[in-house]
Amino acid sequence: MIVEIGHFALVLALATAIIVSVLPVIGVHRRDASMMAVATTGSLVMFGLVALSFAALTWAYVVSDFSVKNVWENSHSLMPLIYKYSGVWGNHEGSMMLWLLILVFFSMLVAVFGRNIPETLKANVLAVQAWISLAFLLFILLTSNPFLRLDPAPAEGQDLNPILQDFGLAIHPPLLYLGYVGFSVCFSFAVAALMEGRIDAAWARWVRPWTLAAWTFLTAGIAMGSYWAYYELGWGGWWFWDPVENASFMPWLAGTALLHSALVMEKREALKIWTVLLAIMTFSLSLLGTFLVRSGVLTSVHAFATDPSRGIFILCILAIFIGGAFMLFAWRAPTLKAGGLFAPISREGSLVLNNLILTVSTATVLTGTLYPLVLETLTGEKISVGAPFFNMTFGLLMLPLLIAVPLGPMLAWKRADLYGALQRLWVFAGLALLLGLLLWYMQNGGPVLAIFGLAIGCWGMLGAIADLWYRGNFGKLPVMTSLRRLKGLPRSAWGTAFAHFGLGVTVVGIVAASAFSTEHVVEMKQGQTADAGGYSLTFDGFREAVGPNYTEERGHFTVRSGGAVVSDVWSSKRLYTARRMPTTEAGILTFGLSQLYVSLGDPMDGGGIVVRIWWKPMILCIWGGCLIMMVGGFVSLSDRRLRVGAPSRKAKPVKAVMEPAE
Amino acid sequence: MILWILLALMTAIVAAALLYPLYRRPEALAPDNAGEIEVYRDQMKELDRDRAGGLISAEEAEYARAEIGRRLLAAAGKENVDAADAAKASGLRRMAIGIVTVAPPAIGLCLYIMLGSPGLPDQPLEARLANPGNDMSLLVAKAERHLAQNPNDGSGWDILAPIYFRTARLGDAELAYRNAIRLIGPSAARLSGLGETLVVANDGIVTEDARSAFEEAVRLEPGDVRARFYVGVAQEQAGKAADAKATFEEIAKASPRDAPWMGLINEHIAKNGGTVAAPAAPPSLGAPSADDVAAAQDMSQGDRQDMIRGMVDSLASKLEADPNNIEGWLRLVRSYMVLGDRDKAEAALKTGLEHFSADGSEGRQLVALAREIGLSAEGAANPGATPKMGVTQ
Amino acid sequence: MTRKQKRLAVIAGGMSFIIIAVFLVMFAFSQSVAYFFMPGDLATANLQPGTRIRLGGLVEDGSVKRGQGSTVSFAVTDGKATVPVSYTGILPDLFREGQGVVTEGSFDAATHAFVADSVLAKHDENYMPKEVADRLKKDGVWEDGTGKGMAPAKDGEGDKAGAKSGQVVGSTTP
């Protein structure tokens, strides 16, 4: 009965979505406050219904109700409890449910926390959110219904894909979706503003917290996914430029650009049209990602078996929303007034540079991801665009941005008069360093590129510190005064510093892990020793072990440094019994920021086994940096300025307000 | 019934929640520009703070102040459109109230009746295991869970092993036999069961492992015909015709004349150059004993296929005469699948379900088997008799 | 600089960045894109040794040989032709004889053998690399829905494969 109640709640949510899609828009048109208010209550009701439905599905998973087809296909009664929970979104139907849940969750947040937003704008935003919810509700109910039943019920489920039975995967999708779907709010704000035909600095202020929240979660989600791929797939790689990874990375790039351009719009009312376009593009990329992943057009870990009807359905959603938004944009954008002026060298200028580079890079990634699909459709030729392409294009294009990041926050708005001798000197110092390295490279051919990359990473980190240093006016004022000044800095300034510092840390990690990591593939027999990264590993042999739903052969290694035992590590090959599917569980040993990564290969004749050992120096910086970026996002989100008090219901005398301007 | 009451209650709550703002006395709209003005005032305050903190220069502050001031003026100058007057609104609102009252029950009910399975109760596994009835797969699942928690329960493995073998889960069967032997010691039945599992898993070849299991079984219980027969087959496969003949002849001597396996034994004796003492009893067709299967493995691939086909056909005709044999139907469906004859398997399933309603416990076994081996039971099941299956296959 | 000049400078700067990006993309495509081939296509493909390609097909039964250390050799076939492949490293967990595989690498000029530097196998037991599946289906070597194809599954596993093929067996997320 619980399952059926969940099913019915989902159907009711559809009915509610239809009402919320229509009534508030009419209300705005006819200036009827009651009908606009339906948007707020409706959004709350929708969240309640979808949450109830999701809870019912989760319950079915937890109690292993195999009369639910979705549970039977993706669960197993002996699976550890946490994977019964995560199994809910470890499959197509369930992950679409999660998508929907987060979508209505954000609608609910806008309904509850959007008190400072004008009634009309809020009603329109919530209506647009309801359109998106409606589309996905229809998609779920008609093509991917998780509540279909089996009768009689089978006695045992088919188990969750073993590589998904992992803690990282349990939390990766929710985080990622919080980011992915969070951008829907920006999209709805953009479309609502276009519908009303007015966009100004205040709009940017209202959108910014949502962008920031979505961006922060997306950062966390991508980092989590990358770390999962790193330790679970057993290939030692942390980013594969897999189309699905790109699908989550593109909204992140566009979202980062949006975050920065919204800043310009809020402060200077410039870049209005561009910001609105970016808001639309960012969510369009999220939708495109959903389409690519869910339609089975792409093959990857994430692709579920292809079902053409699903693909076509999502393609329609994609076409309607993206096409509709862009048409609305083309119709309304020319009526928007251009905003404030600024000199090329100014804070605005640097943010424009940021946007230029980020969008061009996004376009590059998009090209690389879609080109094989387009080519196959047009000519039937099959090609693969792999890491070399992305490293060459994306890597090179991002370079100037990484160099410019520390300079941006130091520039003044409008016209950077302080862009004085000092900063010019810095640039020249940088150029000199570059030239010097280039010369050294021509002479020695050494790892100069890596040094250069590390330097850029450190430049990012130092730049963030320098920003705080100058803001606190350290060196000129007594230390205590400076510290007090730092304390008084707006949270968003801290957020910026954190995020930029984190970016630098990630760059250092990426460069170090790519340039200095070493890989050894050796055949080892019991008692043999191999060296990696200054440590020596002795293979002590195998032990059999049985997990709740798998059996494994665990290889034990003793790690020594200079003859003394430092640690030991287990690496194993598992066989998941229900699906008869083998997986490799890498053994990972952390030394400071660096890691030793041991992965088992095939057994050889004669009792040996192929062992792959990587030494990954400073690799934890990659995710550590993302974590710092995330902290930056949250710090910035806690800025009190984003919580401007709600306007009182009665109009204030306008005259009084105008006084400060004169 | 309770379900329907709850669903009606949910619908009512949703409709009521949506109607609430429509019935509430309409509040005056806050002026459109109020929010904007608030934001700009805040920006102004922030500017003052920055200036006071010395974060920006006086000149910059002045510029910014002028700019924000201009925005404030613009926002304040925006015209506020008045709210709709009550007369105009009431007609519209009646329509809205109508929609909100009708849509949830109408859309909700229509879609739910189309998609849902209101007649199906929840079936948490724990509850089903507590009361498994005679659903074979549930009983197996229950035993499996018991063994997962008590992996040292040898007799549990012993019970499960032959069931695994019969349901063609050979890997599991081998593991179960080995566990049983390890935990409660070898017996002839267990050893020859293990050996037979290994033989079937290896396409009829009596491997070294299997042979030693059979020999051990014979040592423990010299009268075990099955083990002795396989020892003979092993000798035969190893090319030791004389030894094989001796083994088979010994079996023949020790067995009663009319033992069902005599035909098979005599065949083997003949094959290995011996003479058959007496006319063979007809092999029991239709229910291929393990020995028959083993015999099939000595033939060429084609012959073997023919022989299996012959046995399956005889089973089919037997069932035609006496359809009330659920075991037979189950075996027939499975046999057709093993032979790769999907259509016949489906047909057999359908006929079987005509004799056993899909609701009954026997019918359920058939449906469960069909699902297990990937057959569509939907067309086969009598749609009127079964609750609607919301499954598309 | 006048305001107009400033704007021009900004636009020119932006445009030149975009142009650089376009050239970079085109250059990278010419350098690093690997075409997909099946063994049967190679006769007509006229490939230069050293050109990076993706080679897909089924791993021929009985062809996997472990050589020195971690080098493995196997043959990839599409029913029409067979190409020997050598690979040094660890094979994916689901690499099996008779199953679909995609390898990336190039033909060695001296030995004419295909030297792969990456081997991709399916991610779960029902997954067949899409390129391979498309082509094999077209050529009728492999059938969707039976899950069997060139290497019929055996005994109990056969039942299982039969039961599960053609079903949605999932994984996750974008």
From TrEMBL, chain A:
Biological process annotations from GO: cytochrome complex assembly
Entry's transmembrane regions: 6-26, 38-62, 96-113, 125-142, 175-195, 207-229, 249-266, 273-292, 312-331, 352-374, 394-413, 425-442, 448-470, 491-516, 613-635
GO cellular component: plasma membrane
Keyword vocabulary terms for this entry: Cell inner membrane, Cell membrane, Cytochrome c-type biogenesis, Membrane, Transmembrane, Transmembrane helix
Entry membrane topology: Multi-pass membrane protein
One annotated GO molecular function: heme transmembrane transporter activity
All residue ranges annotated as the Cytochrome c assembly protein domain in the record: 89-295
Location of this chain's protein in the cell: Cell inner membrane
InterPro entries linked: CcmF_C, Cyt_c_assembly, Cyt_c_biogenesis, Cyt_c_biogenesis_CcmF
Principal localisation: membrane
NCBIfam families from the UniProt entry: nrfE, PRK10369.1
This protein's name: Cytochrome c-type biogenesis protein CcmF
Organism, scientific name: Rhizobium wenxiniae
UniProtKB/TrEMBL annotation, chain B:
Protein known as: Cytochrome c-type biogenesis protein CcmH
Originating species: Rhizobium wenxiniae
InterPro entries tied to this protein: C-type_cytochrome_biogenesis (IPR051263), Cyt_c_biogenesis_CcmI (IPR017560), TPR-like_helical_dom_sf (IPR011990)
Single Gene Ontology BP annotation: cytochrome complex assembly
Record has Iron as a keyword: no
Keywords: Cytochrome c-type biogenesis
Locations listed in the record: Cell envelope
GO cellular component terms attached to this protein's record: cell envelope; plasma membrane
From TrEMBL, chain C:
Upper classification of the organism: Bacteria, Pseudomonadati, Pseudomonadota, Alphaproteobacteria, Hyphomicrobiales
Designated gene of the protein: ccmE
NCBIfam families: PRK13254.1-1, PRK13254.1-5
One Pfam family of this chain: CcmE
Domain of life (superkingdom): Bacteria
Binding site for heme: H123, Y127
Organism from which the protein derives: Rhizobium wenxiniae
Compartments reported by the entry: Cell membrane; Membrane
Keywords: Cell membrane, Cytochrome c-type biogenesis, Heme, Iron, Membrane, Metal-binding, Signal-anchor, Transmembrane, Transmembrane helix
Full protein name: Cytochrome c-type biogenesis protein CcmE
Family stated for the protein in its record: Belongs to the CcmE/CycJ family.
